[in-house]
Amino acid sequence: MSDNRKIDGQTHWLRVDSGRSDLEWVIMSYQVLARKYRPRSFDDVVGQEHAVRALVNALDKERLHHAYLFTGTRGTGKTTIARILANCLNCEQGVSSSPCGECEPCGEILEGRFVDLIEVDAASRTGVDDTRDLLNNVQYLPTRGRFKVYLIDEVHMLSTSSFNALLKTLEEPPPHVKFLLATTDPRKVPMTVLSRCLQFNLKNILPGVMSEHLRKVLEQESLESDDLSLNVIARAADGSLRDALSIADQAVSYCGGSLDGDRVAEMLGTTRAGEVTGLLDALADCDRAALFRCSNELAARSADLADVLDNLQRAFHELAMAYATDTKPDGDLENYADHFSPQWIQLAYQTCLMGGRDMQYAPDPKVGFEMTLIRLLDFEPLYGDVDTEASASGGTGSASKKNDEAVREPPPKQRQESKDTMSKARRAEPDTAGQAQLNGTPWHERVDEIEATGVTAMILEHSNLVGLSEERVELLLDEDHDTLYNNTQQGRLEEIFAQQIGKPVEVVVTTGTVLEETPAVRRQRLMQERLDLAESALREDKNVQTLMSEFDGRLDAVQPESD
Prior knowledge:
single chain; Helicase, Ruva Protein, domain 3; 5 domains; 24 helices
């Protein structure tokens, strides 16, 4: 005969052998890591110290609110923290941040069968009738616990009528009722509901914190892992600890019990350890064959090429930080500290960023990826003195000196190409990167004075003056706005500059990556700085702080005063 019983929240089958006197327990199910290591107390919660600290203090000092709202992306601990809070409220030993875990309410809450903890999935019960049925019993005292706790998950899925029905109870709740709401999209929750809840915004778990937690879990499971495998899983989880544990479960099966970084990357289709360094080697050596061989190998194994670009960006960021802080980059990147100049690293980072953004518009990911590699291979800043023509037409010797100090010569291993083979964009980029002046006036000031309208004005706003002589004006137009320029616009630009300079000139407009800010970007930066300053001033204002504190308010939008 057989019987089923629950032990530690798991269902076990009891098989009795009539020919033997002993009992044999046969475990019929495996508990996944995400469930097995789900936090049971606030001490077990990972990466949400700000929320845990506030709840612990509130419980220990008996400053309890009637409604709590937990927000955050999936797998960050919203429902888990809500259940722990419900346990703290109903432990037989009293309300505290450390429930005993031994009494019947504690055991039943952990097993999900406590009668006074009513869990509702709002995604499947969105109607007003469902909400009314749920709230009909609010007025009655709890059956066994100290509080009757309503845990409503994905509360943003409720209909407007359901929120209206819930609102009345939230306004005047009975003293024995607590509401714990959880949502991944608080913007869809009405402000009338938000204003009646204490809101805790749970953060995405940082990759470093997640890797360390995974290490501890796998050690408890007697499973081997390396740093690379844990880092790959942490990045793939994208801030969700539950996803990280689920991926770890899958990786354990895939790797046969011992996690290896390359095999985990193979399973997820993400970048392997040596693939980024292979691309960096090819770029450092200007080896086109090797570069596109790497690309073909990545495509052949169906690697996520967007993830490859992300990892290249991370590599360039680490190299840029090493230059900025005068330190050595970590790991394998230490070998590349002398291969690339800081100017090229900045350009490479921006190229990868734009390549990842534009990949969705490519015919397929491989095409977009290879076009980005071509830009990395062929585009690089020029090194040397500022164009003497620019200084002769209004720039001073100090301007040249300033640029000489800012631009460092590339290391010996830095690849160099002849000027004859450089593209127009590369010839146009380096001159003074927006430092040239027109009739002694900085370019951004001159643009404000030029009487241009429509598309012509937009071209000037998104360009930098990079070359100037008595007969020629050279502009570098940001490649994101290259569709603005045509032959008609060139004619209008020549008319405008002829008026500015006092005689006919040729205007040459090339498109490319603009390293220094254009007048449009400068204007946007200044506006943002004013906005940040205004917001900072408001937040530091004691009257505003008092209003926000007394009325549980928040600063939604700030508009600085106009000049």
